[in-house]
Amino acid sequence: MLPEDWWDLTAEASVEDPAGEDVVALRAEVDQLRRALAGRTVIDQACGIVMVLAPCRRGPARNLLVDMSRQCHTSLPEVAAAVVAAWEGEPLSRLMQRSLRRALRRLYAGDRGCDSPPAGEPTGRGRP
Prior knowledge:
4 helices
């Protein structure tokens, strides 16, 4: 069994101590996974909010958030956190408001069939 304070040990690895290096590497990986998991949670919350408000499916909701992230040059978890905060009453920044409008326009343009085949081409739904 491991001692209770095993996780609290300071990671002081030396070149001569491969086990210490492993501990350092594993702790870095655990920290990275924790951050990724925390980011995923807020992204899932924001996707749910977009799905309710837009209304759309999960894929388009996530694409909308990714689109906002690219337009704002901000990480996806940060954009998602801003959307969740806006749901809770915090205002979105002007940049995020503009990018949200653009992303919603693209989403709705796709829903209206703006990306459908030109007239006269078969659609797979009966006659053209």
